[in-house]
Design brief:
The complex is a heterodimer of chains A (538) and B (447). With 538 residues, chain A is mainly α. Chain A is built from 24 helices and no strands. Chain A has a domain of 92 residues. The chains are: A mainly alpha (538), B alpha/beta (447). Chains A and B meet through helix 5, helix 6 and helix 24 of A and strand 6, helix 6, strand 14, strand 15 and helix 10 of B.
């Protein structure tokens, strides 16, 4: 229960008939005595009433008399202008009845209070505190000498100022820092990318609003966290997905991964990534095959505003000579995966070229080469990766635009450098160590940093405040764990990309990490160090 | 590199009155002197109703070693000795004096050899003058000046950080009484037999820094006057020691003397100087009257026992939307329900906030941003301790270090969810201490 309950217990029973004008606290013995008195009185009344409700007991005359009494009281009250009938006028039975009523009401209120969600209780607390303070004030007023003036001030516990930072401001700021990446994606993937992002955000907000209305909870859509979740859900989608994919993703993110746990602040998993995981498990084809090449809208008479697009149009034959219509259009990481698994064929080379958008379909068919060369050999392809002119999820491709947003978040102090740093460092080192075709130390660290969703994940998902550790060391560990899992999934797991699952898995480890990374508290220096620093060696 | 401590935050300074010279307030018509204005045992009243008192006359005698007397700030007749609203929240036995004469400044005859007073003599005079730490905590100064033999003090630090926003009383004191601060500091050093004497000023008060430097140069060139970057809570004893010497005071009940340090506020230094030199009791102090709810913010020198209403009046009165009255700074000061409460020894400022500044935002759930962890100057996990306190899990809260919280309020200040972190922690701290005391009493009873 709330911390105030002892206080509540102390408050005098409002139904007690022994209310005295004297404000001094009676001694314990005195209170005990009075309580006993009251109990005896109640017992007496009860036995008189034969344990039946007091109402039925009185005789006809008695009731007549009482009715008259009440009428008189009412009239008197009316005459006084709405004042209540005086307490002394009430008969003992009437008082007993009222007391019982009040008791029932209190019990009901208490039961209700226990059923209320934690947040509501919290909201109530300040009000209760105020009441407490009001009581105190009254007490003081009663006792204080006449010199006390009327002017009164509000009371709160220090500190009395606040730096005006708020959850709302943080969430909206993070959302706005995603605008450059959104615009970049729109340019590369066409207008439909922007529409998908907006659909995701709208669906998330709508879900939150509807669920909170349904459960009569306070609506929190204004805090910006739902919008952010929706945008991030869409950022994690291939650009060729149908419109309902982000809707379902946001629905799951908000309706299953966030609100049932208590809303913002209580969700154990990053909602956007949970939404993505749900989509990946439910519609794996859409989630893994609906890639569009960069600037697809510039090809073959398609237009920037074209909505209907069949990702199959961009799939190529395995190689110019092969008959089967296998998957050859893929993201850089998929190509990389294929290469690792030695299923790569020469045809992947032109797929790569195609996906970075500087080949026509005719060119592609005629070009050939090893996919590893394609990915790793030339600097300008890595540059394409960094700038974002490649295939991939809507929001993950342009490292530069994401980093512009992230830089602002650093400047505002909304994200800690530790998580992205250790995440990226471990991924890069792991990719360099184990990601090469010719044994250790031949992998391409830069490729591993900029391909796929690492930048998006490291700066926007692994820094989600709610689902990541609060301690500095914990954040380093969290990022390192994410990096490790990412590398493992990319190199030996079943998926080409592992950023989202790595973050989800580490989200689950967050409470544990926080538990074991408590900072050294001030003054808890090691004995020897303390003596040395203290300089009081005697 | 500038010296500082880890953690902390930097609230906007709002030092509205930094450039306004202080002026002495006339003595109040009625002075209200509570019997306890310090940490420790309350004093015992020496006067009764209708007694005549003269300025500087002790009204109470100390109720123990950790206790100091209170003195009459004015001459007049004792109107009553009874309960009266007090800045610490409860009502307290208060000597109410109807003044007939402000009685001057209560200075005694100057002791010609004051600068060579023995440690014993300094302690005795400081105690008789009723000096308690004037930075706000009001710990009896003579106790601090009496370190036990096994805990020698090698460094005396004079605290002129004044890291609380709004307050400028120490700033003005450093400008207007810099010589007395240095003299008092030397007496402190003499009383505890320390070698090193450091004076710390934050770098938002360069004029105070140079004034003290000049004073130090002319009196004793061995004194180091340091400039620290502005940060809250730099003026907290432990953080100041850490910033200047790199030492960390162990958790309570350890005191600064456990690491060989002693910290004195600049105001206390002036009082010590006057007490030793003229045997002047502590009956007045610098007070900043400021804030958005005050018409003409000012620095005043007010007699102890002056009702706050008179200070506010001297500063142009309240604005129409004055909503909150705070004794001390906005970070750690105590809100008052009435301006009838008097100025006491630890009152460094009277801050009145208007309705907009006093507005309290609704609390939201913690979003785990970790800002409170980053700013905590004693490296606790405020959000976790606050939650444990909410859940009444006192044992766990204690294990997480609830008793080590210095209640600076930085965590609540930065919390984007507007959680009342330090308030929960304070409650937990009080409960844990109370339960410990109960357990101890029980054990004693059983034994």
């Amino acid at each position: 229960m709330s911390i105030d309950s002892p206080e509540e217990n102390k408050t005098p029973d409002p139904g007690a008939s022994e209310r005295t004008p004297k404000r001094d606290k009676p001694s314990d013995e005195e209170r005990e005595r009075r309580r006993a008195q009251r109990r005896a009185k109640r017992e007496a009344e009860k036995s008189k009433g034969d344990a039946k409700p007091a109402r039925e007991k009185p005789s006809e005359e008695e009731r007549e008399r009482r009715r008259a009494e009440r009428k008189a009281a009412r009239d008197a009250a009316k005459a006084e202008g709405g004042g209540r009938p005086e307490r002394e006028r009430l008969s003992p039975e009437e008082r007993e009845k009222r007391r019982a009523e009040r008791r029932a009401k209190r019990a009901a209120a208490k039961a209700e209070g226990e059923e209320k969600p934690a947040r509501d209780r919290k909201k109530e607390r300040p009000a209760r505190d105020e009441k407490k303070e009001d009581r105190k004030k009254k007490k003081k007023k009663a006792k204080a000498p006449a010199a006390v003036p009327e002017r009164k001030f509000m009371l709160t516990s220090s500190p009395h100022i606040h730096d005006n930072e708020s959850v709302r401001r943080i969430m909206w700021t993070v959302t706005f820092t995603l605008v450059p990446a959104t615009l970049g994606a729109t340019w590369v993937f066409g207008f439909r990318a922007l529409v998908l992002v907006l659909i995701g955000a709208a669906a998330a907000v709508a879900t939150e609003w509807a669920a909170q209305k349904l459960f009569r909870a306070p609506v929190t859509i204004a805090d910006g966290s739902a919008v952010l979740t929706g945008v991030l859900v869409s950022f994690n989608l291939p650009p060729g997905v149908p419109w309902w994919i982000p809707v379902v993703g946001s629905l799951f993110a908000i309706g299953v991964a966030k609100l049932p746990f208590g809303g913002l602040g209580w969700n154990p998993l990053n909602p956007a990534l949970a939404g993505r995981a749900f989509l990946l498990a439910s519609w794996p084809l859409h989630m893994t095959k609906d890639w569009l090449p960069a600037f697809w809208w510039k090809t073959n008479g398609r237009g920037f505003f074209q909505w209907n697009v069949n990702p199959f149009d961009f799939r190529m034959k395995l190689s110019p000579s092969a008959e089967v219509d296998a998957v050859t259009y893929a993201t850089p990481l998929e190509l990389h995966k294929n290469a690792i698994e030695e299923t790569a064929v020469e045809g992947n080379r032109w797929a790569w070229d195609y996906l970075i958008g500087n080949r026509t379909e005719a060119d592609l068919v005629s070009s050939a080469g090893h996919v590893f060369d394609a990915i790793h050999s030339t600097g300008d392809r890595i540059l394409d990766l960094i700038v974002g002119l490649t295939g991939g999820c809507i929001g993950e491709t342009s490292a530069v635009l994401l980093l512009i947003g992230a830089a602002y978040l650093f400047y505002k102090g909304y994200i800690d450098w530790r998580t992205p740093f250790s995440f990226i460092a471990v991924t890069a080192v792991g990719g360099w160590l184990f990601g090469g075709p010719e044994g250790l130390f031949t992998g391409d660290a830069v490729f591993h940093i900029f391909a796929g969703g690492l930048i998006l994940g490291a700066f926007y998902m692994a820094t989600d405040m709610v689902t990541t550790p609060i301690t500095r060391r914990g954040r380093l560990i969290f990022g390192a764990g994410c990096g490790l899992i990412t590398v493992m999934i990319r190199l030996i797991g079943g998926y080409p990309e592992g950023v989202s699952y790595s973050i989800l898995l580490m989200n689950l480890a967050t409470p544990l990490i926080d538990r074991y990374t408590h900072p050294r508290r001030f003054g808890h220096v090691k004995k020897s160090a303390g003596a040395a620093a203290g300089g009081i060696v005697s | 590199m500038k010296k500082t401590f880890r953690g902390g935050t930097h609230p906007p300074e709002f030092k509205l009155t930094a450039g306004i010279g202080s002026r002495a307030l006339p003595a109040p018509e009625m002075a209200y002197v509570p019997i306890q204005q310090h940490i420790g045992a309350p004093g015992k009243p020496l006067v009764r109703k209708k007694d005549e008192v003269t300025v500087g006359q002790p009204l109470t005698e100390p109720g123990g070693f950790v206790s100091v007397p209170a003195h009459a700030p004015v001459s007049g007749k004792v109107k009553d000795v009874g309960p009266y609203p007090n800045p610490v929240g409860r009502e307290m036995l208060t000597v109410i004096i109807e003044a007939d004469d402000d009685g001057g400044d209560a200075k005694g005859e100057e002791d010609a050899d004051w600068a060579d007073a023995s440690a014993e003599e300094i302690r005795a005079r400081v105690r008789d003058a009723g000096i308690a730490g004037m930075g706000g905590a009001a710990f009896p100064t003579h106790v601090k000046l009496s370190p036990p033999e096994n805990k020698p003090v090698d460094t005396v630090i004079i605290n002129g950080a004044e890291c609380e926003p709004y307050l400028t009383s120490d700033h003005r004191l450093m400008l207007e009484r810099s010589d007395d601060i240095i003299r008092g500091a030397l007496l402190v050093r003499r009383a505890v037999g320390a070698n090193r004497l450091l004076v710390a000023v934050e770098d938002n008060k360069p004029d105070a820094h140079s004034a003290l430097k000049k004073a130090a140069k002319s009196i004793d060139p061995g004194i180091q006057v340091e400039m620290l970057p502005v940060k809250y809570p730099q003026g907290a004893e432990k953080q100041l020691i850490n910033a200047l010497t790199g030492r960390e005071v162990p958790p309570p009940p350890a005191l600064p003397m456990d690491v060989g340090c002693l910290v004195q506020n600049v105001g206390s230094c002036v009082a010590i100087c006057e007490a030793v030199r003229w045997r002047k009791p502590l009956i007045e102090r610098y007070v900043t009257v400021t804030g958005s709810g005050i018409n003409e913010p000012a620095n005043v020198i007010a007699k102890i026992g002056t009702p706050l209403a008179e200070l506010v009046e001297a500063a142009g009165g309240y604005t129409d939307d004055a909503a909150k009255l705070i004794l001390g700074g906005p970070m750690m000061g105590m809100a008052q329900w009435t301006d009838a409460v008097p100025v006491i020894k630890g009152t460094s400022g009277v801050l009145v906030l208007n309705r907009a500044d006093a507005a309290v935002a609704a609390e939201q759930p913690c979003i785990g941003c970790g800002r409170c962890v980053n700013v905590c100057p004693v490296f606790l996990l405020p959000t976790n301790i606050a939650r444990l306190s909410e859940l009444e899990m006192w044992k766990d809260a204690e294990a997480m270090g609830v008793l080590e919280c210095i209640e600076c309020g930085s965590c609540t200040y930065v919390c984007p969810s507007h959680r009342i972190l330090v308030q929960h922690i304070r409650f937990g701290k009080a409960t844990v201490i109370a339960e410990k005391r109960k357990a101890k009493q029980k054990a004693e009873k059983a034994a």
